[in-house]
Write a structure and sequence with these properties.
α1 runs antiparallel to α5, α3 packs across α4 and α6 packs parallel to α11. Strands 3-2-1-4-5-6 form a six-stranded parallel sheet, with helices on both faces. By secondary structure, the chain is an alpha/beta fold. The protein has eleven helices and six strands.
């Protein structure tokens, strides 16, 4: 196969996202306790989490937009406390900054630099990671997220949109991600080659198998260097 570009998932592929999400919830809670203690008392972290899940169920048209789901959660929480003029953007910013304070997997940065020196990279994410805030944007040709495209992985449309931003046909793109359904199956349906980044050693049980299975980003970078050397 001739690979001319790479697309990458972000959360749980380049960094573990759960620690950042938990800390972001705590940062938002601390802000509420300082500035709106009555709201903080009515909506502790677990209650706020349950409200967000309810928002997700009640507003299926926002399934692709995690940021708007959280903004709507803030509005509802304040409205339940009798406050119509909620500080949505201020509280959202507190959450957003903490959510993007991620710690990369040890193998991610060096591997990204090696890959970016060989092939253009585009990110494809359902989440709201900010590569500029994280400090990786210079390694990416383009950045695609579900809220901007209007559909989320595994919908093939988001993968095809990324291919358009790269100017490369899907069959010449290698998509890399940790999620068997969202990443591997979705990219396969869009006509891309696929890598399952399986850091935990799970068994595959999700239909058509990926083209490759790597346990870390270093293995991916090794493969890219070998493949691009072969086709030079």
């Amino acid at each position: 196969m001739t690979i001319r570009a790479v697309t990458l998932d972000l959360d749980d592929t380049l960094w573990p996202v759960l620690p950042a999400l938990i800390e972001a919830e705590h940062c938002a809670d601390r802000w509420l306790k300082e500035h709106h203690p009555n709201v903080a008392l009515a909506w502790p972290i677990e209650a706020m989490r349950e409200l967000r899940e309810k928002i997700n169920r009640d507003y299926p048209h926002l399934a692709h937009d995690f940021s708007e789901q959280r903004r709507l959660t803030i509005r509802h929480a304040f409205a339940e406390c009798g406050i119509d003029d909620a500080p949505v953007e201020e509280l959202w910013r507190v959450y957003y900054v903490a959510r993007n304070n991620v710690e990369l997997y040890p193998d991610s940065l060096a591997a990204l630099e090696r890959i970016a020196s060989r092939l253009p990279i585009a990110s494809i994410s359902n989440g709201n990671a900010d590569l500029e805030m994280i400090g990786l944007h210079h390694l990416f040709h383009s950045r695609v997220n579900a809220s901007g495209v209007g559909v989320a992985k595994p919908d093939p449309k988001i993968f095809l949109h990324a291919a358009e931003t790269l100017g490369v046909a899907p069959e010449h793109i290698l998509h890399v991600g940790d999620d068997p359904l969202l990443d591997v199956v979705g990219a396969h349906e869009a006509g891309m080659r696929t890598v399952w980044l399986n850091r935990t050693g799970e068994a595959w049980s999700h239909g058509p198998e990926p083209d490759f299975v790597f346990t870390n980003m270093t293995e991916l970078a090794d493969w890219v260097e070998t493949a691009t050397d072969t086709h030079r």
